[in-house]
Design a protein that fits this description.
heterodimer, A: 327 residues, alpha/beta, pyruvate-formate lyase- activating enzyme, 35% helix, B: 299 residues, Rossmann fold, 2 domains, five-stranded mixed β-barrel, 10 strands, 18% strand
């Protein structure tokens, strides 16, 4: 895990967590800043250029820390919430909406975890939904050796069995999780695309076999695991590619013990797609014919028929009670 | 060949700093200016004069006289500076530049590898006491602000060579020393310029008009909207590895620009996803070109 530099907000520079993190990032330039927006939100930055040498920004999250999950995001179908202790991801997936969402490719790590926990408790007390998703604006586990996310949040949820945490990731960094007793209310959800798509578009992401082995370790240790087959990208042989992926997944993991599986088609907000096209004009995926509807872009050639066909194949491996379609 | 595209603008305050760089990059005076030099290898040098006002004025003037200049060039400020702790001759790339008088900060993107980084404080008068662990100069802040407003923020960098410190005061900074310091850093400067040029070249290639578009633009009368559509369509053909199809379509006769664009849309609409499923967006309904050509022969 290499960062070109680390920016540190003055307000949190002397906190114990920041001091611990700095000890783990190695000997890289340290730059003090007032607020992360000075770096992250500037106009005129180039996400693609920065992705070549991203920096880590240690910051304090102000304002709302827990937000309603987008419709159809998770297994609670709209009654869940998400929180982002990080913004941006170590990986470089060409289909990822983060490229169109942020001006900067630097990683922000909000270190005031206790404030997130406070807001999670507040949200839980107010609303019926008790499912909290982590990993919407980042990969929750990829930076675990630096962030220490699990050390803080696993004990927090262990003491609150009425709440559920979903940790969404593409990382194989499960060692820290395995040091804890498994929590029935903590679901580790791994995203997969078929091998051809992964090789083409998921740069720096661990191989499918390695990720599956990490998931198997978690499942064998008693952790609820989930699989997110997202994003489904229309391409020739897509059904056969998914058939092979399903075979690989369900021969490694026990489908009957799986918390849930989901399918979600490749979709992006129109504005994000436009920005991504500008960043990567030579990328075939972003040059394809698209369909725009309600401010969202999807690929021509995909749609309900393709999803139905893949769904049918998936349901031969797993009971429909464990399945949902991500909107 | 002065017509080569410029990839990097070097900015120095003083002629003494410029002299070794002019030799290093084989720069020639630009005809219409007494403070701008260009090379045939994509390097331009602007000598601004000392202090923030001169930098702001010179760069504003340069921008004013070059309204059509590319905006995707790199900018590199090279200059001498005092430092509290570094030895004379040591160098650094600024990762934070503070305006001394008002304490405002800007942050060059840490995109350069392999060099020492540090804070630069831009002051209005030479700093003789070096109160902080930083480099002290008189231009970096104004340079960065001005250049970042014009070029891509991530490619605006400031490089400083230490000329004085608590053990070696500003009195010892002679013209000969300045030349020696820049000469001794020339390898590093060359490497830095190469890195930035490569990044700028990549950026320029991404936003450049595809050759097929340039040729089609010369052959058809295009509205502004059609020009944007055609440029994007050409990019898409290349991105989809369909350059040959593009050539074939462009070389065929099309009634007019609308027909050409329709033909390109149609060709793309039939390429995606699973054949036999959805056939592409409504663009596939656009009629393909055909019949007599009405190309714009004005070109």
């Amino acid at each position: 895990m290499n960062f070109s530099s680390v920016y540190i907000e003055d307000e949190i520079a002397e906190t114990e967590r920041v001091i611990d993190i700095l000890a783990r990032v190695g000997d890289i330039p340290r730059i003090r800043i007032e607020r992360y927006g000075e770096i992250f939100n500037r106009a005129g930055q180039n996400f693609r250029l920065q992705k070549q040498a991203p920096a880590l920004i240690l910051a304090k999250k102000h304002g709302k820390k827990v937000l309603p999950a987008p419709d159809g995001y998770g297994f609670e179908q709209g009654s869940g919430f998400y929180f982002s202790h990080m913004l941006n991801c170590l990986y470089d997936c060409r289909y990822c909406f983060l490229q169109g969402m942020y001006r900067s490719a630097h990683y922000i790590l909000f270190t005031n975890y206790e404030d997130f926990m406070h807001d999670i408790l507040g949200q839980s007390a107010q609303a019926a939904g008790n499912v909290f998703y982590s990993g919407y604006d980042c990969d929750s586990l990829a930076m675990e050796p630096v962030s220490g996310f699990c050390n803080s949040f696993i004990p927090f949820f262990a003491n609150r069995p009425e709440m559920t945490l979903e940790i969404r990731t593409k990382s194989t960094q499960v060692r820290k999780l395995l040091e804890f007793d498994p929590l029935p209310n903590c679901v580790v959800a791994m995203s997969f695309t078929p091998e051809a798509a992964a090789k083409r578009w998921e740069h720096r992401v661990p191989a499918i076999t390695k990720r599956l082995l990490a998931m198997r370790k978690l499942q064998q240790a008693g952790w609820p695991v989930a699989i997110r087959f997202e994003p489904v990208i229309a391409e020739p042989e897509v059904e056969n590619n998914y058939a092979r992926l399903f075979q690989q997944v369900f021969s490694t993991l026990n489908g009957e013990l799986m918390h849930s599986v989901s399918l979600g088609e490749f979709r992006l907000p129109t504005d994000f797609h436009k920005k991504m096209v500008k960043l990567y004009p030579e990328e075939g995926l972003l040059a394809r014919e698209t369909i725009c509807s309600d401010g969202m872009v999807s690929l021509a050639g995909g749609g309900a028929e393709m999803m139905q066909a893949i769904e049918s194949r998936l349901l031969t491996h797993v009971d429909s009670s464990r399945y949902y379609r991500c909107a | 060949m002065l017509g080569d595209p410029v990839l990097i603008n070097l900015v120095v305050a003083h002629g003494l700093e410029a002299k070794p760089l002019i030799a290093l990059f084989d720069l020639q005076p630009q005809e219409d200016s007494d403070n701008v030099y260009v090379s045939n290898s994509g390097v331009r040098l602007i000598v601004t004069g000392m202090g923030r006002q001169n930098v702001e004025y010179s760069l504003a003037q340069w921008v004013e006289t070059k309204p059509s200049a590319r905006r995707d060039m790199a900018w590199l400020n090279v200059g001498i500076a005092g430092h509290q702790n570094l030895a004379v001759g040591d160098t650094l790339i600024a990762n934070k530049i503070i305006s001394g008088p008002d304490n405002e900060s800007v942050f060059p993107t840490p995109i350069i590898s392999g060099l020492r980084t540090g804070t630069v404080i831009t002051v209005d008068r030479p700093e003789l006491n070096y109160p902080k662990d930083a480099a002290y100069d008189m231009e970096a802040f104004a340079f960065w602000r001005s250049a970042a407003a014009f070029g891509p923020l991530d490619l605006v960098q400031s490089y400083k060579i230490v000329s004085d410190n608590p053990d070696s005061s500003t009195d010892k900074v002679t013209p000969n020393l300045i030349t020696e310091l820049i000469d001794s850093a020339s390898k590093e400067i060359e490497g830095l310029v190469l890195q930035l040029k490569a990044l700028a070249a990549k950026q320029q290639s991404l936003v450049s008009d595809p050759p097929a578009f340039v040729s089609a633009k010369a052959s058809y009368r295009l509205s502004v909207t059609q020009e944007i559509q055609l440029r994007r369509l050409c990019h898409r053909f290349y991105a989809l590895q369909m350059g040959e199809s593009l050539e074939v379509i462009l070389s065929a006769s099309h009634r007019d620009s609308r027909a050409l664009i329709g033909a390109l849309h149609t060709a793309l609409g039939h390429t995606d996803g699973n054949p036999g499923r959805e056939g592409g967006e409504s663009l596939s309904r656009v009629e393909a070109g055909g019949g007599q050509t009405e190309r714009n022969q004005a070109s």
